[in-house]
Amino acid sequence: MVLAKDAFRLDGKNVIVTGAAKGLGEAIAMAYANFGASVFICDRDEDNMESVARRIRDLGATCVTAVLDVRDTNAVNAWVADLPRIDVLVNNAGGTFYSWVLDVNDKGQRSVIDENFTSVTNFIRACVPKMSQGGSIINVTSVEAYRAAPGFGIYGAMKAAVEHISRTLALELSPRNIRVNTLAPDAMHTPGDETLLVGDRDYGATLALGWGSADDIAGAAVFLASSASSFITGTTIHVDGGSDAARGWRKTENGWEP
């Protein structure tokens, strides 16, 4: 048996991408449209989201938008209830700020938890009853889920929680043939992290493949949404230029150093 040339096509699929106004979510939504899917996107940033929607429609694809706070369970439930069958869900929305754990107040902690973890469970609970057999859930975590994250401790803990619950859901949802996987990006310049870069070191220069782009994660997202990945569930694809593999090693002019 030979893998079909159209195994990566998404024609006829309805996909949700959260946090799609810019950055990784924008790239994923655009790629899905380019591969034939109908795209349903949400974000709090209405202006940039509508700009993405226009470009998706220019590709000839359907795009439905919603100005939505993914932390708001009732709002999520109401929006999803009005959508048609769902084939793919990408939980991309998230965010954080730089602070040592002991300096994070209750409000800040709750905000990071809800934006990065509660939003994921909100959408999964709302979408699974409407998902088709063979559906795909893709949760965007981070390299911070797999290593210490000084200055981003609550964020890293929530991304680790997303990775863990994704493994559990992969088993719990297997009777419905719904696959659940995660993407762990790193070293990608996006508008959302412009204020989070700490220090003056060229981080990308320390990685095996240097800096990546949002399109790099879009490729992995297309794969996990497509029939080409139909036997993959409960795992993580690291789209990080070798960051996780290095585990503390860094590339220098003289080679690799710890």
- General shape: globular
The main pleated sheet reads as: 7 strands, parallel
The number of distinct β-strands equals 9
Structural class: alpha/beta
| Strand fraction | 15-25%
Distance between the termini: 45 Å
The arrangement of helices and strands along the chain is: EHEHEHEHEHEHEHEE
Helix content bin: 25-40%
Q: What average pLDDT do the residues reach?
A: 93
Instruction: Give the neighbour order of strands across the main sheet.
Output: 3-2-1-4-5-6-7
Low-confidence stretches: none
Radius of gyration: 18 Å
Report the total helices.
7
Textual characterization of the structure:
This protein has a 7-stranded parallel beta sheet, with helices on both faces. Strands 8-9 form a two-stranded antiparallel ribbon. It starts with 13 loop residues before the first strand and ends with a strand. The relative contact order is 0.14. It has 258 residues and is α/β, with parallel strands linked by helices. It contains 7 helices and 9 strands, in the order βαβαβαβαβαβαβαββ.
Entry summary:
Helices cover 36% and strands 19% of the residues.
Task: Based on the model shown, name its key terms.
alpha/beta; 258 residues; two-stranded antiparallel sheet; 19% strand; seven-stranded parallel sheet; 7 helices
